[in-house]
Design brief:
GIY-YIG endonuclease; alpha+beta; 4-stranded antiparallel beta sheet; 43% helix; single chain
């Protein structure tokens, strides 16, 4: 399984990435050890959303299209989980399952 995720940073920006181990990757982001250059300088604050997909290709496609969204659309995606409404014309949204964050 692969996961596409969105993190909120301390400056209220949103970082999007992919991983095969969401818990391990979050530890890296929050500890700033082996984290992305962006979250090293912007400090990850909160995991906002996670989608599960079968393979790297589909996870990367979702990551790419989320990164192309303007900030208000990213906020809408986080708050309303309307992946089909925002991205259906670009990707097959049935490939993704949004996971609950505890």
């Amino acid at each position: 399984m692969y996961y596409t995720y969105m993190l909120r940073c301390e400056d209220n920006s949103i970082y999007t990435g992919i991983t095969t181990d969401i818990e391990h990757r979050m530890k890296e982001h929050f500890s700033k050890i082996n984290c992305a250059k962006y979250t090293y300088t912007h400090t990850a604050k909160k995991l906002e959303a996670v989608w599960e997909s079968e393979n790297r290709v589909s996870a990367s496609k979702l990551e790419y299209h989320i990164k192309k969204l303007i900030k208000p659309k990213k906020e809408e995606l986080i708050g309303q989980n309307n992946i089909e409404e925002l991205l259906n014309e670009k990707i097959d949204c049935s490939q993704y399952k949004r996971l609950e964050i505890s």
